Records
---
Amino acid sequence: MRILRITPLHFAVLFCTVMGGSAMAQTNTVTVSQDAKFEELLNEKRKINSSITVNDRYKLQIFYGANDKARKALQDFKRDFKDLDGTIVFESPTYKVWVGSFSSRMDAERKLSEVRKKYPNALLVKPNK
């Protein structure tokens, strides 16, 4: 008959098993405090975003490509055409510069012919249509 001896390995496994069952995880609570102005600003942004309609307006796309070049194109455009507003739209993997907001296609095409003198690759778009 063979007698089993407790080796250090057996002792370590036994110790971890017994102690592991009684170990408890840490419990903690996180409290976040924020300025009331932050909530006001967030609500204002939500109001502004909901009032922006992109679907029913015609836009002129003057550029598509890399982010830094799109920013430069928009900056140049705003300098040349102060009466039109513009924005950069990201559609993976490119950035597009859209300018203007026209209710009718005829108005958009008139402005397009003027914009094409400076930006020959400009085109007319109607987002989400």
Note: The radius of gyration is 31 Å.
---
Amino acid sequence: MTHATSFGAAAGDYQRGRPGYSADAVAWLLPSSPRRVLDLGAGTGKLTALVVEAAPDVVAIDPDPAMLETLAAALPQVATAVGTAESIPLPDASVDAVAVGQAWHWFDVDAASTEVARVLRPGGTLGLVWNIRDSREPWVARLGEAMRGSAAEQLIEGAGPRVGAALTGLEHATWEWARGMSADDVRAMARSRSHYIVGDDAYRAQVDRDVEAVLAGLPDRAGVVSLPYVTHAFRAHRP
């Protein structure tokens, strides 16, 4: 089991612990009145749940059948298929937009960009989005250290994403917001991360202890914490 395909082993924790997306960010990602949208690397459907409000026809593709089962249970109107960003099981020029939530950093960028351009109609849009915890808040920074960081955070805090030559005009926008979470939600978030899922018992136990130490240091807010996020969205187009 690789990091990129590990999440199905913790689909329940992923669904509970990971945040959804801003409707404003999704509206910015997608073209006006798209007919058909592909959610690529759809996971449990966190992004799909908003895409279906913007397009009458949505297909969700993910390499992990367990993740798609969770998605299908919540969004039965969405067509699903097992596939990868480098080999998308759709015809040429068959979608108006491809949306990718919290997943582009797992892909072979050049191969994925070529495949995305193939399935997009001329002028179609690729939208990329990540929710990144706002570590300017000291306790959030400590939580990030306890969970050992992630590939997504490294990408966004570094040079940012890129797209291959088949796509053009990469734009960037951000939104700041906060999510109310119980302590159990935070624990589920920690357990949903790839390093935790593939880690050995000793690694998991240490992460659990470190997360508990962060939670123990927070003031009691009736069992709920406000976790600040910055949503980073990017879009590019097929010429």
Note: The beta strands are 36-40, 57-62, 79-82, 95-101, 120-133, 168-182, 224-237.
